[in-house]
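Figure S4 source data
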Amino acid sequence: MSVRIIRRAMLLALSAAIGLACLPACKKTKPTESAPPENPNPPGTPPPPGPTSTRDPGAPSSPVFNTTGSAPLRTASAENLKQIGLALHNYHDATGSLPAGYADKTGKPGLSWRVALLPYLEQENLFRQFKTNEPWDSEHNKKLIRMMPKVYMPGTSTNGYTFYRGFTGPGTWLPPQQKGQSPRGVTFGSITDGLSVTTLVAEAYDPVIWTKPDELEFAPNKVPKLGGVYRTGALVLMADGSVKFLRSGFENSTLAKLIQISDGGIVDIDR
């Protein structure tokens, strides 16, 4: 009798154990919250890089002179721009328009207006060494980059880079050139806003190889950055040959009026 009771008790205990083991599978579990999305930039991780700069990695840093640009440094750059202005007028008198450079054999812009201006800057011998039907970076022409005249330097050597750049785009003195056409700048007669209130060349923020036909692209809503020589502003060459100094913070809307040759937006920057 006692053995049967013990066996029955063992069977009951075994059944109870099996029932308890099944309870978790039948029990309603609490819904788990979804894990938050993984942070693409966890703490301590730098954000993705922004748009890359188009500045030539070999170009000198800007500004070249971390000064106010006072005399004699600013005077030297102003004299350079005055010489460039006089040369532009002499070129215009000889050809009937302002220089826009040279096209290569494919009809694309190949050499800058700065090369075309050489004979009018007493650089006839250097000009004759260029192959004007080849691009600026052809095997022949790129050897002449190191021979950049001092008139294109901001007062110190910049290894073939110049900060003196013109403006290109609709309504500027260097309008967009059509492929296959000989590059040609505008005439002084088409600068109806007035020569004294129209800017031709400026000290750009980003320098370029002096022979490269790479100018400051302009649109009324896209005014190029100036001031790569001095931290306090930039010198600009007006179409009448005068040179002005625009201080940092000069309004883009006013600069846009100075760049356009016939928009009717005449401003007096001397006031």
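Figure S5 source data
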Amino acid sequence: MDSIAHADEGAIRIPVVPVGRPPGPARSGVGVLDRSVALLELLADGPRSLRWLSDRSGLPRPTAHRLLVALEAHGLVTRDGTGAFRLGPRLAELAFRADPTLDLATLADPVLARLHDATGESVQLYVRSGDKRLCIAARDSGTGLRDSVPVGALLPLAAGSGGKVLLAWSADAGRFDAVSASELAAIRERGWAATVAEREQGLASVSAPVLRPEGTVAAAVCVSGPVSRLGQAPGRRLSAAVVGAAGELAAELAAGSQRVTRAAPG
């Protein structure tokens, strides 16, 4: 499923580290920076409480709180309705500027709006980011159910239809043992993926690839919603609409590339 409101069965468990030392091998020697980045890394899998972040980072709670509030002031961290900390929108903005391909989110906005109106469900656009997928655009169903994903969220590749679509057209899919080669082959043949209660109980999703002219995958268009509405076979209801939206976005992407090529000097 495509929601990060709560940790799911696929969430990565991060071991407790010694007090004051950020998790992971990357340390710059600038203590406040390393600790701040460590907190951001811990938020990559979804909202977390101050207590959880303090325990997992090894930082005293007052120190963790001070750093999180500072990150919040810069828009790098925000809080959800329960007061839990989560990654902030500024991170997505910086990512868009660092990688021009993420301008795809702007191109996708009208396509996603039409898909949202047609289905009445939450819609997302994912691109691959290392061994995860990054949500670069989203529209919430507005139902109050936990089926929405915020822009900037990092989710697994091997769980949920959006991740599996990105994997199905990836050259290194064999590294991900959680998804069989036969399942990915079936997704490529069908042209879309559907999952039910895979990342989170009670949620279903359907995704399709946005393919570049040369056949590589640029992004995955996803529709997600409660199983109570979408049923145990959500593809029957949604696959045509999702595949159509992905195809429309692929055409827009190809047209944009042609315009850039024609405009290039020489």
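The chain has a mean pLDDT of 82. DSSP finds nine helices and eight strands in the chain.
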